[in-house]
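Appendix B. Raw example, untouched.
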Amino acid sequence: MDIPLFDPSDAPRPPGEVRFRSLVAEPYPDGRRIRLKLSITPFLERPNIEIELRDPQGLESGAVAVIESMDSTLSMTLHLRDDPQSGDYRAVAKLGYPDHGTVDAAEVAFTLPRPPSETAG
């Protein structure tokens, strides 16, 4: 009798088959921090993940690198470098390995509301 310990479709994958499952960006009310949640497929080798935050003009406003992630689900908070601008931002994520390069990419848009100091008055 076989007792499955995990879903066979969720078996760990080799580097070329690892993919993003989800990428979510949630601005904090202060408008200076962004909570990022991401999920990737199970993996045989630990991947590297690079994430950049892009402001409404497309300029880098924050970044993080996760080297050899041990988990397939991550949550982190990124701080915006400069004074936040209201408008549409993007989180751009790349998943890769030193020997294989980038194997997948994901992007999510999010909107920063107008800072409280600009709405008062």
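End of appendix B.
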